[in-house]
Request: fold
Amino acid sequence: IAMEIDYFQLDRAEYFVPIVVKIPGRELALAKRFGADHTLIDFVAEVKDETSGMTVSNVRDNVDVKLSDATAAELARRPIEYDSGFTLFPGTYSIKFLARDDETGRIGTYQTSFTIPDLNKVTKRVAISSVVLSGQRIDVRDSLFNATKGKQESKNEMANPLVEDGYKLIPSVTRVFSTQRDMYVYVQAYRQTLPAGAGAKAAETASPLFAYVTLYRDQKKAFDTAPIAVMPEAGSRLGVVPLSFHVGLGKLAPGEYQCQVSVLDPAGHRAAFWQAPIMLVR
Reply:
């Protein structure tokens, strides 16, 4: 099991925390070899506050995967994807996740700690959410191996900023991308709305943020996008500034790169920089 945990600010107190879990499809293809025509995957997740030790959220879910010859062949090539989400306050948490194949009895577990920062206290730089890197944007109705498919749209799904116009951005847990496809980058910046008459600070919230993506290889710039300028969403008390990019990878050679996202606030004389390694393959 591999997992990615992200966070996006909802209001002054709460954060939406989407998780995406990937399981190698070949694990489920085993059931087909045993002669099964379907298998049921049970998912259990528990989130605990590491300070108090109390359970603050949990999920129990399942998905019924049909195992036709065509589906089994596809499972051998692609992972099963499950996603869910929690609403949490700033703090440090631990998550335990378990997946069980009812047909074969095989179990996979994942456990890690994560921290939700208090972005209200960020003053010397631009406050930003998690940066999501993705290699696919899919119609929510076509999520073939996703436990939420076919279920009534939940409150969490409606709050999920990775869902827009009926399409969902699927975070890349492994951060391995094909040069034959675009890489999607999404991040939110926050600039809290201030009362009219707050002088220079009020002017800051009315001005755009600028952002761009840069790829480095061997400490040299290999590629960067043109800067974009985005205004805060109208009516957002947090001053949410959604920043999204489609990065064409076709002209880059396979190998390891460092991906950097730069967010600049010229009016407030602040900036934010995020980096992570990625791998490009053909």
Q: What stands out?
A: The first strand starts at residue 2 and ends at 5.
